[in-house]
Specification:
With 218 residues, this protein is α/β, with parallel strands linked by helices. The chain has helices spanning 3-11, 24-29, 51-57, 69-79, 111-114, 131-145, 171-178; strands at residues 40-44, 61-66, 84-88, 91-96, 99-103, 119-122, 150-157, 183-191, 202-210.
Length: 218
């Protein structure tokens, strides 16, 4: 998606994608990552999600990547924290205790800029991108995180019934992006109550991606 698309969403306060509480799927399944307290979790395309406050409250450190500065300014306001803001080339770094948010195009982020990541929580990134961008995104995410384990949430629905975002990302596509690099486990699949945006039936799927356990043939 073009930056202007998301900027317009925020300017018009069209935030139907923003939840008023931490995602129940995060609360229910985050422990599947088996992270120690103090581990650092990356949220790509994080917006001002309340999932960040939940992770901080559970004793984790958070890194985030977000295109729209307005979202991150509101995030820190809602956290009641004043960030230190520095420029890192094309990216701005908003930092405070246990939290680092990088504002800019995620494709301009490097692993060196982000720093060490223990896990990725992708609730809103893969499904926010159209199909032609998802191949680039998944490869880039693995590169900048050194293939850190992931908790990934995707939607499946009839894309002809509704234009994204969020886009339908079929489970077969998740496997195409990640099965050569991770062990994939589908740990939950639920019907979206009332349909996605009230328009069409959809499944919300939770994946656990673990590295270092795949057995490569040959």
């Amino acid at each position: 998606m073009e930056a202007s698309f998301w900027q317009e969403k925020w300017e018009k306060n069209e935030l139907g994608f923003h939840r008023s509480e931490a995602n129940p799927l995060l609360v229910n399944y985050f422990n599947k990552l088996s992270l120690e307290k103090g581990s650092r979790v990356l949220l790509p395309l994080c917006g001002k999600t309340l999932d960040i406050a939940w992770l901080l409250s559970q004793g984790y450190r958070v890194a985030g990547a977000e295109l729209i500065a307005t979202a991150i300014e509101q995030l820190f306001d809602e956290l009641g924290v004043v960030p230190e803001i520095t420029s890192l080339g094309d990216v701005k770094h908003y930092s405070a205790k246990n939290i680092d948010i990088f504002v800019g195009d995620i494709f301009n982020l490097s692993g060196k800029t982000i720093g060490s990541v223990d896990a990725v929580y992708d609730r809103a990134a893969l499904v926010a991108l159209p199909e032609h961008m998802r191949i680039r995104y998944t490869a880039h995410l693995m590169e900048i995180t050194d293939r850190a384990p992931q908790l990934l949430i995707n939607y499946e629905y009839d894309q002809t019934l509704m234009a994204g975002p969020p886009f339908s990302v079929r489970n077969e596509e998740v496997k195409q992006h990640y099965q050569d690099h991770y062990d994939l486990t589908l740990i939950a699949s639920t019907n979206v109550e009332g349909g996605l945006k009230g328009i069409c039936a959809a499944q919300e799927n939770v994946w656990l991606l673990q590295k270092g356990k795949r057995k490569h043939s040959g």
